[in-house]
Amino acid sequence: MTRKETTERRPPVAPSSTPSAPRPTPGPSPVPPQAGPQSAVAQRDPSRFAPHLERRHAFGTVFAIACLLATMLAIVVLFALLIDIFRDGTGRLSREFLTGLPSRFPGRAGIGAALSGSVWTLVLTAIVAFPLGVGTAIWLEEYARESRFKSLIETNIANLAGVPSIVYGILGLAVFVRAFALGRSILAASFTLALLILPVIIIASQEAIKAVPNTIRLGAYALGATKWETIRHHVFPMSLPGILTGTILALSRAIGEAAPVILIGALGFMAFVPNDPLDQFTVIPFQIYSWISRPQAGFHEIAAAASIVLLVLLLTMNAAAIWLRNRYTRRY
Amino acid sequence: MSTAAITVPPGPVELETRDLSVLYGETRALRSVSIKIPDRRVVAFIGPSGCGKSTLLRCFNRMNDLIPGARIEGEALFQGQNLYAHDMDAVDVRRRIGMVFQKPNPFPKSIYDNVAFGPRVNGFRGNMEDLVEHSLHRAALWDEVKDRLDASALTLSGGQQQRLCIARALAVEPEVLLMDEPASALDPIATQKIEDLIYQLKQDYTVVIVTHNMQQAARVSEFTAFLYIGELVEYGPTQDLFTNPREERTEAYITGRFG
User: Fold this and answer.
1) What CATH number belongs to B5-106+175-254?
2) Is A59 exposed, middle or buried (0-12, 13-18, 19+ CB in 10 A)?
């Protein structure tokens, strides 16, 4: 690779064919450009350049290797983590574990209540966050005029994306659990997690909407379409793959969160499977946390098994994101 | 303001501007332009980049409304009615005055849906399949796409895409077709097809075409307007303008001395 570039970038040896250098009337015999004292137009003096090609290419190689090492480091750490979890947890995975309820004995404890709680929370969070996030993004990108108000909102959204999740937990406790009197319910947790991921969904959706070429909007307007029709038939469908990917990645973050759910009041020992949005609940990350903080080794093993379940759930969601993206992109 | 060399074309007037100026913020893109576009003729706007010819074109279907900070002064009339009157709906104006853009911009949907979109949103109640076929015929594209109407419009070549955009514009049955350098992104053969098409379209439509290509203006148009730095310098029958320009600036431009 490097060698090929070197040969291609070598400066032309015979520059006589370059048309950009106009010369005074050509004499009967071709005169080298540097011969005449007044040939300032086509002055060529190779000694004024020090290309150091080998050094420059070497620098590129070093940089590429450094980037490769950075990548490898991340992958190695990830694999070490995965191997550790799978070694501890695989033995404990079983149908009973997936459906069982917590127990004082690690051998009998299951993840059923937490898995169910996580799926409930996930679905409700998505139902709340998706329309709010996409609606906000469409308003900001398609309707709002450039103004200080708009940039104020955008700055705030960007800042909210960086607020620690535990702060959202405090907010959820104050607003949804107490003020709205939802109690320590799945619904209160879903609203809280929806707020947490809203900024991410909005920003991802805005980027997806921005990526729709303006010529498409102009084309639709020029046919006598209204703004709503242009958004409904062109802008939204074209940005949907990006919106869905952003939303699902944001939801992946939500189901991995323990801190805000603890503040909302998820149960450390959940003895029944929830079947109503106003039921009390727990989620897998919190279940993992409460098991891992016990002294017995048996609980550490089922915590690893629960981590595997959580990872599989996350991978499934990411696969769904890719599948949806391909499906909606292929249609065009 | 400008004492330009202007010959008013004979016959009924379809589009007209009276002392029309367009400002983008502080920049004056068009200075007090008065022009009359005759019904069912082809009129070309020529001039160097930034002379305001595209701006003038976009005034006729109110596309300038979509540019933040754009402001117009003076009047633009369509069949004698003020296009910018309060009771004029820009959406309706754009259905009646169609537009084709510089770069082909088909929707990333099927060929059929590209043509059917306009009629659908405008409440077309007739037979959609007939309308799509008819529109594609008018745009001289039917024979090339009749077997693959469900294929994505993006599988077409650049020239076919541009004719699809023309078909799409014709499907909402406009009275005027505005073309903003419709062939500048196309190869010579595709350009030729577009030019042939323009020649046929003038039987039923008023066509206004902006072009950088003076040969093209000479080939397709009956009247030509030369604009320079936001002003209408000369306007008259195409042949007169190219063979016997009355303004020095026109002559300089068409002989290639600037622009």
Assistant:
1) 3.40.50.300
2) exposed
Q: Is pLDDT of A75 > 50?
A: yes
pLDDT tens-digit profile of A201-230? 999 999 999 999 999 999 999 999 999 999
CA distance B243 to B231: 21
Spell out the residues 6+ positions from residue B131 whose beta carbon is closer than 8 angstroms to its own: B115, B116, B119, B124, B171
- Contact call for B95 and A145, based on CB within 8 A: no
- The C-alpha torsion from A78 through A79 and A82 to A86, rounded to 10°, is -170
- The whole model's pTM is what? 0.82
- The DSSP line for chain B is ----EE-PPSS-EEEEEEEEEEEETTEEEEEEEEEEEETT-EEEEE-STTSSHHHHHHHHTTGGGGSTTEEEEEEEEETTEETTSTT--HHHHHHHEEEE-SS----SSBHHHHHHHHHHHTT--S-HHHHHHHHHHHTT-HHHHTT-TTSBGGGS-HHHHHHHHHHHHHTT--SEEEEESTTTTS-HHHHHHHHHHHHHHTTTSEEEEE-S-HHHHHHH-SEEEEEETTEEEEEEEHHHHHHS-SSHHHHHHHTTS--
Q: How many CB atoms lie within 10 A of CB A77?
A: 10
Separation between Cα atoms, residue B164 and residue B153, nearest integer Å: 8
Distance separating alpha carbons of residues A85 and A307, to the nearest angstrom: 7
- Pairing mode, if any, of strands B97-100 and B13-24? unpaired
Residue percentage of chain A with pLDDT more than 70 = 86
Compute the distance between CA of residue B105 and CA of residue B162 in angstroms, rounded to an integer.
8
- List the domains of chain A with CATH numbers: 105-330 (1.10.3720.10)
Report ipTM for this prediction: 0.93
> Is A263's pLDDT higher than 60?
yes
- Longest alpha-carbon distance in chain A: 104
Please state, as a whole number, how many other Cβ atoms lie within 10 Å of the Cβ of residue A171: 17
pLDDT over 60 at B30, yes or no: yes
B9 touches chain A (CB under 8 A): no
User: Which of B103, B118, B152 has its CB closest to that of A223?
Assistant: B118
CA distance A296 to B70: 72
By Cβ distance, the residue of B103, B109, B169 closest to A223 is B169
Distance from C-alpha of B33 to C-alpha of B21, rounded to nearest angstrom: 7
CA B98 to chain A, closest CA, distance in angstroms equals 6
Q: Is A298 helix (H, G, I), strand (E, B) or coil?
A: helix
Q: What is the CA B43 to chain-centroid distance, rounded? A: 9
> Measured between alpha carbons, how far is B182 from B168 in angstroms, rounded to an integer?
14
